[in-house]
Design brief:
The chain is α/β, with parallel strands linked by helices. The protein folds into two domains: about 160 residues, Cobalamin-binding domain (Rossmann fold); about 270 residues, tm_1862 like domain (pyruvate-formate lyase- activating enzyme, Alpha-Beta Horseshoe). It has 15 helices and 17 strands. Helix 13 links the parallel strand 14 and strand 15. The longest helix is centred in the C-terminal third of the chain and has 18 residues. This is Putative variant cofactor biosynthesis B12-binding domain/radical SAM domain protein 1. Keywords: Iron, Iron-sulfur, Metal-binding, S-adenosyl-L-methionine.
């Protein structure tokens, strides 16, 4: 069967940071092994997204189309949504190729499968969750009721099969990048690496705002460290790729897994750089030294709460001391550190602003001598379905049954609504003065 997999728009414009669609390529690799003729199309690379899609559909004329919705909105306090271009994409496919089945999937779709299929009758099928095994099974004609996570229509209803089983890395196929050559993604971004590597899936943490456990499960499924480095070495040798982002929810859990990967990188003498999101409370001086030596180019942290109360409300299972210690450990390196925080967290008051400023000051003081604080990123909390934050927002009357979470909705009570902007002024001043080496005057 001739199958076209399409990455729907997942950034606002061609000027935004884009990433190689590793999930879609992984699914394509499994389809190829099953004997299908597979091609891929990433709309995010096109200056004329819909004109290019028009040409691609009419030139390919596939037997089936898989459409991935990775993000429902750009997050980061944006009020724009990625649902409108997704809807236009679906309608355009149906108008140009009326007889071709459309199968939707991706992380964004997984959060709202029934809703999206009810509003878009053009979509015939969907896959909730991991699609590497489900999509080949659907195209092979397996009984619909037996396909994990399959979304299907029954008269006027949408039926979603439970995701009864998680993708095992025993079935893992290294994504065949020849299906979507990486060359066009090289050097495309100014900040974030465009190329992701999976070392594991799943997250046992239960942060109050996060949907990773819904998307990947609560059990960590790890690849063998040597196989991860095999993939890195192949990408370096075959495509000349040198800069990677580890896609894991948290890269340094479970303890020991990342360390084995780093040691294998060093053993093979690979000259690569990498980034990932780190858990603060399992860092040690020895581990930080190993990470830097093996190519870590940025320590990404997401403590989220400025105060102990906020950390507790967000269910981070961290102490403020853990965050400070992580800063102290990484500040002695030649690697940038970036910290992500939430503002106007449930329970925060006007006094919380001064406490948050104190934490920002502390981070700049710790990193100041080597000027290796890349950024302090401030966000409000995007309310996602099925999370404790959604329950809190409902209990407080911030949202109700009429609130549509498919579109951008943030937890930001009016009493402290300007907290992020006030902290942005303080943080940006500190950042600019640090990089420009200007002494602050009080």
């Amino acid at each position: 069967m001739k199958v076209l997999l399409i990455q729907a728009p997942s950034v606002e414009s061609a000027t935004n940071e884009r990433v190689y669609p590793i999930g879609l390529v992984s699914v394509a690799t499994h389809l190829k092994r099953a004997g299908h003729d597979v091609s891929l199309f990433d709309m995010n690379l096109q200056s004329d997204q819909f004109g290019s899609l028009n040409a691609k559909l009419l030139s390919e004329r596939p037997d089936a189309i898989g459409l991935a919705l990775r993000n429902i909105d750009p997050l980061a306090n944006k009020t724009s949504s990625l649902i409108p271009p997704f809807v236009v994409t679906v309608r355009m496919i149906r108008a140009l190729l009326p007889g071709v089945p459309i199968i939707a999937g991706g992380t964004g779709f997984t959060l709202f499968p029934e809703r999206i299929m009810r509003e878009l009758p053009e979509i015939g099928w969907g896959i909730k969750g991991e699609a590497e095994l489900g999509l080949p099974a659907l195209l092979a004609g397996s009984p619909p009721g037996e396909i994990s996570g399959l979304c299907r229509r029954l008269n006027e209803d949408v039926i979603v099969n439970p995701a009864a089983s998680l993708y095992s890395f025993d079935d893992y196929l290294v994504p065949d990048r020849d299906l979507l050559p990486p060359d066009i993604y090289k050097g495309i971004n100014s900040y974030a690496p465009a190329f992701g590597i999976e070392t594991k899936r799943g997250c046992p943490l239960q942060c109050a705002y996060c949907v990773y456990p819904q998307l990947q499960g609560k059990v960590m499924r790890c690849r063998k460290p040597a196989e991860v480095v095999d993939e890195i070495a192949m990408l370096n040798r075959k495509y000349g790729l040198t800069d990677f982002h580890f896609n894991d929810p948290v890269i340094n859990m479970p303890v020991g897994h990342l360390e084995e990967i780093c040691e294998e990188i060093l053993r093979r003498g690979l000259k690569v750089t990498w980034t990932g999101f780190f858990r603060e409370d399992v860092l040690t001086k020895e581990k930080v030294r190993l990470y830097e030596k093996s190519g870590c180019s940025c320590f990404l942290f997401s403590p989220d709460g400025f105060t102990q109360n906020s950390l507790d409300v967000l269910q981070k299972k961290l102490d403020v001391a853990d965050v400070v210690k992580a800063a102290e450990l990484t500040s002695g390196t030649d690697v940038l550190s970036v910290y992500h925080f939430m503002t106007n967290v449930p329970g925060e008051t006007c006094e919380s602003i001064s406490q948050a400023k104190s934490m920002i000051d502390r981070l700049y003081k710790i990193h100041g001598p080597k000027r290796n604080l890349g950024a302090v990123v401030l966000n409000n909390i995007r309310i996602m379905p099925g999370t404790p934050i959604e329950a809190i927002a409902r209990a407080e009357g911030e949202i109700d049954d009429s609130t549509d979470l498919l579109y951008p909705v943030y937890y930001n009570p009016s009493k402290n609504q300007t907290m992020r902007y006030r902290l942005e002024i303080h943080n940006t001043t500190k950042n600019v003065f640090m990089w420009q080496q200007i002494g602050e005057r009080r």
